């Protein structure tokens, strides 16, 4: 028997043994050698041999012995993986796939690891010891959170994230999502179905409770496969997923016909259940919470439903705050406060004269009172202010375990915000601003009194970049002020004529970032996503953006080395670049982003915190940090005042309260 005959026999023998695609088996022609009484023919998978799928390789490489007498082919275990022609570097080793940490093997039972979710392959001995050899996966794509998507609230949202980053195909998404739970809302006892005429009908479903709008007070938790089976006699039925939310999409009937088998194997169908928001599981009465239903609905429409525990804390805190206000008005002794305000749902706001006023904490999920949506989303605006304050504290080296104090840079931000409230019309008719703005930090005002324990802001030009957030919030009313150019005029006035070009250009870039992040509709909360589509700057700022994105897109690059490589960490653009990098690369993880940014000091960490807070909002920040920040109520109050003032349906609609603000809380001009 010659070599070709031996190879031909092995190829026939392999035909019924391998997998498909990259898992198919192929002879290694360069490892076919003569042996005693036959031939040794080495083979492996197609994916390993041509490098398209190293993880599919067989190790040690199998060696088939083909006897000359035409006898049965068998594996030669002694020679396996060490060919007679020489040593095989893969002998007695295996290649282990290193999977992107964002792939959750428990989220979708049975879903194999997608090729695009594999970071690389690392070689190990059969005893599990790494050899140091690594094979990159050129097809890897960064995960959903890294790519700017929100945190998933359910397995089907996890799967949707995989689809959006192209880890799986649309057909694979539909195949796997059919067995995951969705929420089918009901009204008057009927599940919701939308009729699309000739295009068929769609069952309305939502991917998590956070997506269900407040118009629905009941839903059925059900597998789409079970839901669709009810309409099996009507082939024109599909799914309408998350209608009324930013990410609405259809699962079309034709797609279902291609991938769906509506019959479930025994044991895989789960019992259906009925769900309702936590509010409807309790009874809430009293003047202090007369508008509770409105606030609960607002939180739900914001995408942050209140848990039963949060409702309990809020009701108790609102009731206590109300009783103290009534007692103060009547001249009676005030009800006693609990020792730990935050644990009991309270934060400290302030009266116009600076006197403390414990108030119910909203968890960053809603604004009291409920207002029609303006240009900015309240949870993102508050998140930016709170994130800034936390970053300022962490950048000073403070440890949350020891408490976090309001820093001088945060005090300066609040002063800037006070300045724009006192100096600007909330609903201007023209995109013009006054020739000057009143100074913030009025000595007898509540802001100065509430923050008097803070130290001075950093004595560096980069500290003026904080003006960008205060300037951005002035565009909360749709109209002449709701534009980047208006906010840029404000920021130039706040930084002053003596500021250098780096401060001005850096603050203008931040205005663009914050406006995109705070936008109530179609916002770009992830910094990297915004920067990748931002091409309005050239020169030094344009180069800075390019540097940040290039470093961020080196997914496996060392964060600290990349961070430290951006300038000297002292000039305004270097500080800004480091803050942008920390937020762009790790903005989906508040702790990772701020631990990195804190290396650069208070300004870098505060700016990073603002961007991370705007993306994740307060519910996405560590609860332990919020509890450790003693002056949370000060920041909450100022952000709330800015939101209320620069909102067409806020203070501008309340003439009596507007007069009080103009006279006492935020006197106009230089009063």
From TrEMBL:
Pfam families assigned: Imm35
Please give the Gene3D superfamilies that the UniProt record associates with this protein: ADP-ribosylation/Crystallin J1
- Keywords, ordered alphabetically: Hydrolase
Positions of region (Disordered): 131-151
Signal peptide range? none
Domain Immunity protein per the UniProt entry, residue ranges: 4-80
Q: Which GO terms describe its molecular function?
A: hydrolase activity
UniProt name for this protein: ADP-ribosylglycohydrolase
